[in-house]
Design a protein that fits this description.
7 helices, alpha+beta, 44% helix, 4-stranded antiparallel beta sheet
C-alpha cells in the first residue's frame, strides 16, 4: 500500500473550462448588447445570466479542496469546503454501497456507506461546520426505509423525523450536547434504517462507488495484515 493515496473528487474537474466558458459568454453578451436590435435584448440577458451561473459554478469548484480523500496507513481523511473528518482504520466496521427498497427489489444509492465502531472517537475528529452541512444535505436519506410501524397518515411524522435531539449518550456513558449530539443521533437513526453511520456522495469520488469501496477494503486489509506481522 502507498504511504498516501490522494482522491480528487469529480467536483474539481473542468474548473478552467467552466471559467473560460463564463468569460467568453460575458464577452458575447456585451457584444450582443451593442450590435443586436432592442427587440433581441433578451438574448443578451440570457447570455449574461448563463455566463454568471457558469462562473459561479467555476468558483464553487475552485473552493473545493484539491483532494476529497487522503488515504494513509493509519486513517481516512475526508476533506470538504465546510470542514473535514478523520476515521482510523481500526474504527471502521464495514464499508459498502448502501441499498434501499424500491418496488419489489433493492436499488443501490449513488454513495458509499461506512459503519463506525466507536462514535466517541469519531465525534472528536469531525469539524462542527461539516456536521451541520451533512445534517442539512443528507436529510433525504431519512425518507428511505421508514419503519413500517410509522403512522404517517397525518404527514407530521416526516417533519418530526427530520429533527434530531440535542442530547446523546454513547455506550461508554459519554454525554454529548448540541451539534455533536444531533449528529450522533442522526448517525444512529441512519444505522438502524440503512446499516451505516457515514455517507459520502459518489460525486466526491474519482471512480464508481463500487470500485472505491473495493479500494478502501483492500487498504484496510493490507493495514490489518501488516499489523499482525
Amino acid at each position: 500500500m502507498q504511504d498516501m493515496i490522494e482522491i480528487r473528487s469529480q467536483a474539481k474537474r473542468n474548473i478552467l473550462v467552466s471559467a473560460l466558458l463564463g468569460i467568453v459568454g460575458l464577452c458575447l453578451a456585451g457584444i450582443s448588447f451593442s450590435i443586436l436590435p432592442k427587440s433581441l435584448f433578451l438574448v443578451g440577458i440570457f447570455l449574461t445570466c448563463g455566463s454568471l451561473v457558469t462562473l459561479l459554478i467555476a468558483w464553487v469548484k475552485y473552493r473545493e479542496p484539491a483532494f476529497s480523500f487522503l488515504i494513509s496507513r493509519t486513517s481516512i481523511l475526508y476533506q470538504h469546503r465546510h470542514g473535514k473528518w478523520q476515521l482510523d482504520w481500526h474504527n471502521i466496521q464495514r464499508i459498502d454501497v448502501p441499498n434501499v427498497t424500491q418496488g419489489l427489489g433493492r436499488t443501490p444509492l449513488d454513495m458509499i456507506g461506512i459503519k463506525i465502531k466507536d462514535y466517541s472517537v469519531f465525534l472528536n475528529n469531525i469539524s462542527p461546520r461539516l456536521m451541520t452541512n451533512i445534517l442539512m444535505e443528507q436529510r433525504s436519506l431519512l425518507f428511505h426505509e421508514l419503519p413500517k410501524s410509522e403512522d404517517c397518515s397525518s404527514g407530521n411524522c416526516y417533519s418530526d423525523d427530520m429533527l434530531e435531539g440535542d442530547y446523546f449518550k454513547d455506550d461508554k456513558d459519554i454525554e454529548y450536547k448540541g451539534i455533536q449530539a444531533m449528529f450522533a443521533n442522526r448517525m444512529l437513526k441512519l444505522r438502524q434504517r440503512l446499516g451505516y453511520d457515514l455517507f459520502v456522495a459518489g460525486s466526491e469520488l474519482d471512480r464508481p462507488e463500487r470500485e472505491f469501496v473495493d479500494l478502501l477494503r483492500q487498504c484496510q486489509y493490507r493495514v490489518f495484515r501488516s499489523a499482525t506481522k
